[in-house]
Amino acid sequence: MSSESNALADRPRSSVVGIEVPHESAALHVTGAALYTDDLVGRAPGVLHAWPVQVDHAHARITSISVDAALTVPGVVRVLTQADVPGINDAGVKEDEPLFPGEVCYVGHAVAWVLGESLEAARLGAAAVEVAVGPLPAIVTIEEAVAAASFQGTPRTISRGDVETGLATARHRFSGEIRIGGQEHFYLETQAALAEVDEAGQVFVQSSTQHPSETQEIVAHVLGVRSHDVTVQCLRMGGGFGGKEAQPHGLAAVAALGAVLTGRPVRLRLTRSQDMTMTGKRHPFHATWEVGFDDDARIVALRATLTADGGWSLDLSEPVLARALCHVDNAYWIPNIELHGRIVKTNKTSQTAFRGFGGPQGMAVLEDILGRVAPALGVPADELRRRNLYGDGQSTPYGQPVRHAERLTQIWDRALQTSTFEQRSAEVEAFNSAHPHRKRGIAITPVKFGISFNLTAFNQAGALVLVYKDGSVLINHGGTEMGQGLHTKMLQVAATALGLPLGLVRLAPTRTDKVPNTSATAASSGTDLNGGAVQDACRQIVDRLREVAAPLLGVAPPEVVLADGRVRAADGSAELSWYEVVAEAYMERVSLSAAGYYRTEGLHWDAVRMQGSPFKYFAYGAAVTEVEVDGFTGAYRTLRTDIVHDVGDSLSPLIDRGQVEGGFVQGAGWLTLEELRWDTSDGPARGRLATQAASTYKLPSFGEMPETFRVEFLERAHESGVIYGSKAVGEPPLMLAFSVREAIRQACAAFGPAGHCVDLSLPSTPEATFWALSEARTARAPDPPTSGSSGALDGIRATPVPAER
Amino acid sequence: MGAQIEMGTAITVNGRARPLGAGVDGSTNALDWLRNQGLTGAKEGCAEGECGACSVLVARPDGEGTRWTAVNSCLIPAAALDGVEVITAEGLGTPEDLHPVQREMAFRGGSQCGYCTPGFVCSMAAEYYRPERRACDPGPERGPNGFDVHAMAGNLCRCTGYRPIQDAAFALGDVPDDDPLAVRLSRPAPAPRATVLDGEAAFVRPAHLSEALAALAGTEGAVAVAGSTDWGVQANLGHRRAPLLVAIDQLPELRGFEATPERVEIGAALTLSEIERTLAGSVPLLEEVFVQFASRLIRNSATLGGNLGTGSPIGDAAPALLALNASLVLSSVRGDREVPMADYFTGYRQSVREPDELIRSVRIPLPLLPRSSFVKVAKRRFDDISSVAVAIAADLGEGVVREIRIGLGGVAATPLRAVATEHALRGKPWEVGTVGAAASVLAGEGTPMDDHRASARYRAAMLEQSLLRFYATTNEAVSS
Fold this sequence. Notes:
Chain A is α+β, with helices and mostly antiparallel strands.
């Protein structure tokens, strides 16, 4: 096995991986030539347009749907309702997401779809559909759901050690709670599908989906046909971030159903408000916690209950909860721990995957605790964090050894060094004494993020590599491209494995009829899994070509080296061109194509006991951020961020840096800016999403980027057992953004007396920041922290209690 | 009446004249029209001018020449581009022959998913060709090549975190003299066309104010559009349709500018970008407003007339114009009348303007009060809508408040003057005691609400803080 994994991880001397190349579609992106699903509409003659009939009740029984008036609207061709579904009326895999519901479960729930000759006709038709409902009581907040015992899915617990004794004997004890907001994906391209039926009844769906195989399965079960009757293709997505892992399926199924029933292509593309009101988001969480520290400010014990707001159906809430529980520890050793997790059912969109998949929410609990209590422990927050980092030989609360824990301290120290943390902390202090109305704060936070799907079975992938007689190469793999650069990396992997220049390899769009039974492109695993499969296919071909070339070169097959488009004897005695060997292989009737397959070795996970080693490895990183907060408004600017991140040996440095920076800014958006507000009143708009447009839901713009932004990769970071020694990079950097929020907390503290504990709500918007700094301003020193009186709207109500003895 | 439709009604896109075509009426926006032409580079991301994925370049008049101006195509009626030259990302370059802006974006990692990219490229190209762009000392929002980052404040990217896009922008060199789009700048922009489209959603571009007023008076429900940055949102998101759109953005009577010792008069149909360039900092309060007013993409289309005509309670211009003691000239078939800003608003999105009246110009009396300040409180630094906007203009004499005017936005159904606060300050010494007391009065002005942007309590606090901040800035030496 070890030679196997070395072959996977070791790079040949001459390799295309590790070279900085632009995104494979960059030239198409910048010229507008790159096509996305909805750009294909003009290429589908006779296309019909779909528009949803959304109901504005948070919870209601549907008593009747009348489509007669809609059918009289000029241009309306058909109205799709429950009665039209030939197969299973469900958009998910858990049979709790009816595609055409009998009950309205959230404001904006689509209960029917209108097909029209134009989008305008479909929209007017939808407005004419009459839906009669009987309102039912609605649950909107986590608190309401808990009070009503409105739970879904299975509660889970992770525990280790003796928390009771740990807390009882801890020198310092604190308790509190935190509210963690959700997040809208706001991929720039909204959900889209285009379906057609061919002459033989084969359904072809172009879908903006991270999970073509599951889209295929759901289209098939809705239509009541088999998977081989449905092909799903994804050219590329205009952003996914997890929002297109499970959400596209039902929409693709509606388009496919329409195409089957009308015989015409059907295009379905959500408007931004439809997308925001209908599709799932990052899960809001609530957590209560008790923590104990010893005299050295080391964590002795932690007990916490995490409650995830799953929305109206389960979707991916159970695995999201599992990952949240697996990441409460973040990078810190907690000897005694007890974590409870549960999912509430509310009348909101069904919350789903979002970059980090619960991990960020889990980490938020402990990062908030540490930032909050550091002053009460009398230790600077950076020192408190450093002291509690994992060390050699320690394991996670779920029993997985923390391999390469030394990288955490290496990264930490490197980040302090490159950011000149110590010197700048002094400068921040000097600035703060000189400026009554503006304060700066600087903070460092770590990330440890587990890589692999928690569910072991998902950790497999396939690929198809075709070599044509002229020596050109076409690769297919099961992963999808959403901007993360997966296709770029796969081209580099194939070129490296075949010993070819990048230009000889081309990649074809992701299709379920090329590679079947794929996993979602998710969990940061796209490169690890598909890279393994592409390399496997290439190696099969290389092995065959060695056999072909060996007699021609006069050496044994193992002595044949493929590199730089040449096929050489290892001793340099003879060489052939790639083209010659390929042509010879064809003449000798040697197959020039191969299906590759990969599965991650060494994983095991007991999902009931929540114990095992679910992750192949951990990705590590740390970030130092400095902010400046305006005391008049609470507005902040991010002055500088220094990141040190572990991407293993980078496969594609430009791509990886893009993932680190983009993830960081997206995380900063979640923590400090982006705010989902649902109407929680008892009025007629109860349950309505108030922030359902770009004008009301604010994601980071240019002004939120750190003014100085430095990213460094950990050096000598080869990861054995992973494709060419690399590490996954999609999700982990998002959580580096805790450094922004903690820096804001530090700046708020500077408005108050030393030792003041800052209660800072999430998201830490200018308003939340203003209340936190106002509280600091009026606090007396020394300040025994009091219970949540900040007036903050949502968020932490931390109530640290002084040590009892 | 087919005869009325000007033959050759067409938009020149990427150098090729394309007829507007059958089925196009006043409700067709330029983005949908372009995409129906097969030009799918411009994308819809939000359909309300917030994300910039639909950005394209249009040739706009600039003195005797032309300026490539980036605008949100999702907000503009296609018919409003009749006769206009448009450049999309496809027209700037091809994958085999990239434009310098495209090359920098592609090779520096400026695109990830690529969906926002064509829009970024257009915004960036407009700044690339901006005649005033010169190499300079770089600042936090300005590159060594003079590139102003604000040019891209109206473009959202969810993937990159913006750093590589900024690097691409700052790496751009000078424009070569023989660059075809640069060569185009020295010739005049296309003259406005007298476009007429009939139908259920008709569109007309009158040549003169009198014709426009007659058209508005003659059709019940007719809507006047200039930059269409508000109407476009109502049409796209609210699905509003008008029987007739009357384009007023090129009316010469609404595009005047005059500065005399007594006043500055600004044509209501000048875009905010044009006003910015024309005023060139001579009204410091407006200068402060403009940089925070939506985004460059919006300011390239939006007008003062439109901003005041919609009567939004949070429009950023209104508080400033209140503080400047401005007045409006309203025109109708009955003639002109002048209305002080303080009397203009009557209720939520309501004003004294009659349905058939147009705002012709805005008059700002001179001399200006010597000190001014604009505080916009929002979640995001750029491209956001105020939760509270406070504009202050004051004459602080020798430590005594000789005059002060405070305009507020976002704290009531209309923009308003903080009359009680002004009264509490007028004639009083400008020192911490009176300012603190007046700040408390200011906190009680208006009737702020709780909404998704901010709580009522925060809005009230921001009123109070805005005066304290102004006070602090007048004592610059001791605080910052």
